[in-house]
Amino acid sequence: MTDNRISLAELERGTPFEQRHVGPDHGAQAKMLAHLGYASLDELTAAAVPDVIKSTDRLQLPEGRTEAEVLAELRDLARRNSVLSSMIGLGYYGTFTPPVVLRNVMENPAWYTAYTPYQPEISQGRLEALLNFQTVVADLTGLPTSGASLLDEPTAAAEAMALARRVGKVKKGVFLVDADCLPQTVAVLRTRAEPTGVEVVVADLTDGIPAEVAERGVFGLLLQYPGASGAVRDHRSVIEQAHGLGAIVTVAADLLALTLLTSPGDLGADIAVGSSQRFGVPMGFGGPHAGYMAVRDTFARSLPGRLVGVSKDADGTQAYRLALQTREQHIRREKATSNICTAQVLLAVMAGMYAVHHGPDGLAAIARRTHRYATLLARGLSDGGVEVTTGTFFDTVTARVPGRAAEIVERAREAGVNIRHVDADHVGMACDETTTREQLTAVWDAFGVQADVEELDGAVTDALPRDLLRTDEYLTHPVFHEHRSETSLLRYLRRLADRDYALDRGMIPLGSCTMKLNATTEMEAVTWPEFGGLHPFAPADQAEGYLTLIRELEERLAEVTGYDKVSIQPNAGSQGELAGLLAVRAYHRANGDDQRDVCLIPSSAHGTNAASAVMAGMKVVIVKTGEEGDITMEDLREKIAQHGDRLAVLMVTYPSTHGVFEENISEVCAAVHDAGGQVYVDGANLNALLGLARPGRFGADVSHLNLHKTFCIPHGGGGPGVGPVGVRAHLAPYLPNHPLQPLAGPETGIGPISGAPWGSAGILPISWAYMRLMGGEGLRRATQVAVLSANYIAKRLEPHFPVLYTGPHGLVAHECIIDVRPLTKATGVSIDDVAKRLIDYGFHAPTMSFPVAGTLMIEPTESEDLAEVDRFCEAMIAIRAEIDKVSSGEWSAENSPLRNAPHTAAQLSGGWDFPYTRAEAAFPAGVQAADKYWPPVRRIDGAFGDRNLVCSCPPVEEYDG
């Protein structure tokens, strides 16, 4: 019967979004609580969370709203953005995202909910797509080894600077930057260089390297090709001069221009960097976009970030994997040369598929059209008496208009076109794939020039230097020629997606990585043109909706963390770490404490902590952790006393990396503060704190947050991410700022951390929507259910696998670590065997061997329902039974389903010489044949791939489709 007492207002609200986001319903929660011996969520978290950190007040956030209401609010914000035709350029351009790529990659959860491909057997589709991206970059730059993307062009240039210093023969000297480089790149270089003692010198290199600079020594050189002014210069002589000085040469190059211009490799460059944004990725007010780096073979093993390589599986079948993992900061820690942790995989996939969609001929046609518009624009201006200062150019034209620049920019704006105000006397205009004849006319009118496209078209000639025209072939691999029809490309994308395991298939229980629901409502606004089409350097009054969304998001993040100020500029968690540490460094220096350069880090910390500290110019000192995973207070006090007034900061993850709420955190913070240091709390595990405790209130001074973890931005197969930094008031003056946008940060700030003023602004609507949908109470309950689910799993698995660490009352936080080492010692079954066998059961493995080798760190999140959580537990219990069969001698470890996992369909259809059945291999307990996920390859030989490094599409004769 209908309950007529329910009000119309209640009926209109419908089901609260919280019930969509949180997996276990009330009945499931009651069952899980009963299993743990608690009567309510409040009772559980009261026992799990130490009193010293608990928040006594509720979050002051707007009440959660329905999905329809939040979408309406986002529509209102979108309408407050004015998306004019952009001709600003400076590394950001209009582009048409092929609809087949937009719908089937960017908007497809099979692609955007996947995790970093550390389990390559279930990431073959994504890895092939990244190999396509690497091939595009390698071919166009003329350098044989490309990475699988970096964060953006300026940070890629900064990584190139660090690489040049590391591998070059000149160990002192300066990093020389051409004056025609992008201004945001120069600014990021300065931010990154100063803490490590590198001097960046900017000079006009048109006539070569100035003698006074050469005399000082030059370890690295950066050139822009084409330049920020638009000029296309032949850099061969200055590159040769730099090599004569022993310098490593980096060229920041435009990929679209390289379809027509001689490649950086052929010019003599050692490294090429840049952005792939104009390959079908919306501007998004600055990001996310996939930066790139390509290097000579000599430097392949020193390349920062991730590198996809070709290897083979147990049957000798070609397979892909991340290559040379020992370069990663997770392993090298304070010896790491980069803190890059998040790539831009989703955007790299889009850019690679843009090239697959168009092929080399299509890309060249787009480039020629773009160049043609630029030549028409320049000719119309010059015929009208305007001085055009760029004689040879690709897409960007600079005009000299003494004293009139502001007036002309404003007139163009009134006509619906944004152009660049270079200075009082110069204006810049960039053409792109989306440029129209109407835009040219509007720009000419702004200059007071009358011109006609049709008349000029027959009269103008190209403005590219003839001796720089490209003559070699590129993108010759079949993948860039086979998918001209949409039918073919659609099926190719589906085929690759089917080879992967993402959150849309099932649970990804990765500890520390928080693979939770990325709701469709949260994702929807990202592709709206009002958010996607805005240039990051557009006038602020054209971005009122964006700026309101950013301000509200920063304020709400400050509220939930207890900090006074938040900056969302860092475009990855690693960059948020760096920004926070640079703020601490600047604070100490402002107080006259220049000597404070020691960063204390627990031995259990995430690898990027130590790498970020070194990049911030600090000396890393390791603090011991005890048997329960908590910081050893005695050792902490010894280290504080030992380093005295050199102590700058302690970096600590809370809850700890071991998945527990440390009860002594306030004591830890007090000890560091008493010694004059600052406390940095890594926000990787914030999903255990929201609504329960606030780092800024229990002793921390600064934290970075992971919006791609706690706040629902999807991992995208290994990026994008956003890593805001939150600080207490005394550190607020030292947050990131930006030279091209005063609103982006304080005047006293540390400089820009990313190329765009607000980082990866294009995906911020996701986190804004999540917080708006959930409200304060919804966020709190989500945290409580995350803690409930982790403890439920720990309790269920404890009889079968030891739970390594627990906190108060024997409880964990939002994740638990199970110990496989005793079983490995007794049977030879390795942690890899367990992880790969989970694939046969239809699961992505938990986090392996972090923070303790031979263990699995499991984080269910609040989004997985009880049926899926139980399915995972039952799979783990069944795997334990299989290990027992090895222990009993029924199977040997080498000839068990664990060691042979994962099992492919091809393997099952061939000969069979195993002591277990095909059904036991492919359909273990709980796996339904109709729903079976079939891995495309067997276990991959990583060592073979590292010894035989191949990082672009294999030769045609090896291509298997």
UniProtKB/TrEMBL annotation:
Protein name, per record: Glycine dehydrogenase (decarboxylating)
Signal peptide as annotated in the record: none
Domain Glycine dehydrogenase C-terminal as annotated: residue spans: 782-903
Catalysis: reaction(s): N(6)-[(R)-lipoyl]-L-lysyl-[glycine-cleavage complex H protein] + glycine + H(+) = N(6)-[(R)-S(8)-aminomethyldihydrolipoyl]-L-lysyl-[glycine-cleavage complex H protein] + CO2
EC number: 1.4.4.2
Domain (Glycine cleavage system P-protein N-terminal) ranges: 19-447, 453-736
Source organism (scientific name): Streptomyces hazeniae
Keyword Secreted found: no
Coiled-coil residue spans: none
Family: Belongs to the GcvP family.
Lineage: Bacteria, Bacillati, Actinomycetota, Actinomycetes, Kitasatosporales
InterPro entries, alphabetized: GcvP, GDC-P_C, GDC-P_N, GDC_P, PyrdxlP-dep_Trfase, PyrdxlP-dep_Trfase_major, PyrdxlP-dep_Trfase_small
Oligomer status and interactors: The glycine cleavage system is composed of four proteins: P, T, L and H.
Broadest EC class assigned to this enzyme: oxidoreductase
Cofactor: pyridoxal 5'-phosphate
